Structures are given as C-alpha cells and as structure tokens.
Amino acid sequence: MKIPYGISNFKALITQGYYYVDRTPYIEYLENLGEKYLFFLRPRRFGKSLFVSMLSYYYDSTEKENFQTIYGKYHIGQNPTPLANQYGVLEFEFSRINTTTAETTLNGFLSNTKIGAQNFFQKYPLISQAQQEKILSQNEPAEVLKALLTAYKNKLIIYVLIDEYDHFANELMAFNLDNFRNIVSRNGFVRKFYEALKTGTLEGVVDRMFITGVTPITLDAFTSGFNIGVNLSLEAQLNALMGFTEAEVETLLAQLGPDVPVRQIMPDIREWYDGYRFARSAKQRIYNADMVLYFAKEYQRHREYPERMLDVNIASDYGKLRRLFALRNPKQNFKVLEDLVQQPFVPANITAQFSFEKEFSRDDFLSLLYYMGFVTYYDQTPFHSFRVPNEVIRSLYLEYFIHLLKEREGLSFSEEAVKEAILQMGFYDNAEPYFRILEEILKELSDRDFQNFNEKNIKLLIFATAALSNHYFHLKSEREGKDGYTDILFLEKKPYQVYHQYAIELKYLKKEEASRLEEVQAQAARQLQNYIREEPTLRELTNLKAFTIIVVKDDLHLREIAIH
Q1: Which residues pair with 208 in a beta bridge?
Q2: What is the pLDDT of residues 212-242, one digit of tens each?
Q3: Domains located in the chain, CATH noted
Q4: E strand or H helix at 399, and its extent?
Q5: 3-class SS letters over 304-321
Q6: Nearest Cα to 322, choosing from 248, 262, 404, 250?
Q7: pLDDT digits over 152-192, tens only?
Q8: Paired sense of beta strands 206-213 and 37-41, if any
Q9: C-alpha atoms less than 13 angstroms from C-alpha of 3 in its C-beta half-sphere
Q10: In the prediction, which pLDDT does 482 show?
C-alpha cells in the first residue's frame, strides 16, 4: 500500500494509487449550503492543501475528460453535481513568503499572486500574450488580480481557491505586529487584494471561493473590506472534513497487513495523535492526518514504532509555539502555559472576532492556540473549556516550558546531563543522577518561586525536564490530587525497551514542616505499595522500581521501597 505522506496533489494521489479516505461527499454538501464564498480553517498538516486540490480538479473545465479517472471510484464520481468541470479555477497559495521586512513580505505576496496568474494563463489561454504581460507587469497584488479578472470577464466564470491565506500573516503577527497591522489596514496590500476579489464577485466574474488557513485573525482584520465570506470552521457537521476519525485510522492500519496488531497499537496512536474536536457539539474526535500517515509510513517500512513518535515536521512547530507565547502579554500567556500542562482543562470562550485594537485577553490567546491546534475543546464540562489534545502537543509544551523557565530563572542545569540521567534511569537502574539535577533546579529557584509551592509544581518540573529526553519513558500521572498525593509513572515508551520502569510517590513539605519527614516518608511508602498492589497493570511489571520523593522546600529526599 502506498502511504500518501506529504502528497497534496489530488490527481497524482489518485492516479498513482495512493491510499485515500473519501472526502468527496463534502463537495456536494458545500454546494448545497447556499453560500458561495467559504472560509475553512484548520491547524497545519491537517490536509488542507489536498482538499483544495480535490476541489480544483473537480471544478476545472480543462479536467473534464479526466473526471472518471480521478473521481470514478468515489462518491462524487458516482453522484456528480451540475457544477462539475464548469469553471476556470484560479488558485493562489501564500506560504513560503519571506516576512523579514515589509518589502520582502510585499514582494513575496506579489510573486505568489503572479504565479497563480501565470498558471491560470497556461490552463486558459483565452487572452493575448500582450494582455498577459501587461497583467504580470503590475507592481501591486491587487492590480494583478483586478487586471486578470477584467481580462477574463465574459470569457470564463471563475472559482477562486486560496490555500494558506494567512500563513505569512501568522508569522508576522508573532514577531512584527506593526507590519501585520499595516498590510491589513485600509491601505494595506493584503486588504486591497481581497477587496479586488470582492469586486470580482460583484461584477460576476468570480462565482465561488474556497479559502483555507489556520486562524481567523487576518480575516477579522479586513472588517468591511471583505465581508462576504462565511467561516465554516466551527460547524459540527464539518468536524471530520479534514483529518481522520478513529474508525478510519483503524482501517488504515489494518490495510498495512494481516500481521499488524491494530488493537494493540490503537491505544498508543490515540494517546499521541488523537484528541481534536473542531466544534463543541462534535461527537467524534479527529486525528491529525500528517501524524497518522507518518506513523503508518514508518510502521509499514520497519514493522515497529518509529524512534520518534513526534514527526520532525510537527516538531518544527516548536519555534512557532515559542513566538506565540511571546505575543502581546507574555506574563499572562505563561500562566496559560502553566495551567495547560498542570490542569486537565482550562475554562475559556472562543473569541467571536479578533481585534488588535483592544486588549489581548486570555480568551483571545486560548482561541489562537485552539485554531493553531495547540488546544482543543474539552467535552467533560458543561461550560466552554479547552485541553491539550494529545501527547505530541504536550511534549512541545513541556519542552518549551522548561526552556522558558531556564531562561527566566537563569537555571544552570545542562540539557545533555538530563538526557544522560534519563538514560541511566532506563538502562542502568540508577535514578539518583536525574533527581539530583531536579534538586539543583529547586535550589536555584528564588524564594519567590516557593510561595504557594506544592506537589503539582514539582510534578511539572519532573514532566518538563523529562521531556528533554522523551525517547525512553512515557510519563503519566495516575492519582492527581487524591489525598494530597501525586503518583508519577515512568513507563516504557515504544519502540525502546528499557530495563527499568518507575512508580513514584511525591510529597512536598514546607521548611517549617521538616520535622515530619520520616512520618511522611512512611506514609508515602504505604500509599505507593498499596497502589501498586491494587493496580494489575503495575503489579505485573517485573522491572518496576518504586521510590518515594519527599521535598522539604528545596531538599529532595529519594528513597527506594520494596514492592515484590
């Protein structure tokens, strides 16, 4: 089976025999909505470009003779709509734009606009070479678009497809907010481009549009400049338009071969890649398509889990995450980060319309994280709330948290030393080096940091430092908050087979409570022993080691306890 990892050309995917989960029924659904100018937002690597390509080949009048070849096996091929192959399809894509300066941003946007125009000329050679050259000689993106639409008026009815409409704008927003404001302002070149598009609809040359991106911030900034589009991103009926449902993931894995233990694999896949809900009332959670295809490709090739469950292309989002948390109100954003990695959910409301003319609120920031795929709806509360969607995103958060803490507090620990210490835990039955590093971090924190300090703060430090070397262990917190104790499990992470796994009972005492150390150590040992006896999955682990950790302010007391 050919796994379509990284394939975004629909015709190539189908004609070259790649695996495909049918999303063509949505073509008919979108047509029947009665809306012609559609926005649809999803996080990066969810399959937006492939969906745009599917629409392009479906509506393109020059692909009519290829219709059955491309769509014949799928729903829309057997139930075509009257609009199939009826348009000139004008496509723009606005990624890969150099946003270093205002000039490079304009030049990049202009270049991508002209590329879209040139491709259109090649497919629909209905105007003279001189007209084409005049259009391409324009120095403003809006002027290129206006000239093109004028030249093709009464020659073609156009369907405009725009992929990554805000890719460059999101980068600008993170590190050059003034430039972002300028390009979407009344005289900004991006706003003028979309005003020209709106004019094309009024004049009848542009009949339909489908525009994809990640966040609605750029759209909201246009205000009245482009008020014809309908944002369908939060529609429950379109929750599964992009990405995979759990049933689709199971089917994909089963197609890899009869020897694939789908039932054994699914819990790990669920933990790492599942979790997205794009409407509060949506019934199904959605898997990130890129993550699942990455795993399937690696498993098909090696018949084992990839060494890194985190695809390097997703890991590259770490830099974007770092810039996001520096946006507008870093202190407020850091508190959100702490809440996300410590709490099962955080209450917040989706922002109806973003505006950089008002204070950037906590809800605004969480809404931005939601659109970018860094949080998702939590379905276990009667009020609006969000949670970290999966282990991939949690790993990014934890890694960022410890880097930020190290930077803010001037911590001197070595990341390489942490990685070596984790290796010692997994393969040499030696937990001491890792927990001594943790103690050094505690001693470097200022007295201010110990105000309202508790077990959760230490647990966060453990999870975050361990994330620096997340190859060998998967950390879980089993009894969060129960009776004031927090159990931490260092469990084996596939594909590695560590020699030792760990169960830890953690307790924090203030300096004035130091006299209770032995009492609390004994209590923690009993609790942990009872817990392991009561938990079959832990009781059966022959390589499990158990420790109590009692922290008295910044002194860490580590003690191994007998469990077998």
Answers
A1: 159
A2: 999 998 888 876 667 888 999 999 999 999 9
A3: 10-233 (3.40.50), 246-313 (no CATH), 317-391 (no CATH), 413-561 (no CATH)
A4: helix 391-409
A5: CCCCCCCCHHHHCCHHHH
A6: 404
A7: 999 999 999 999 999 888 778 777 778 888 888 888 999 99
A8: parallel
A9: 22
A10: 46
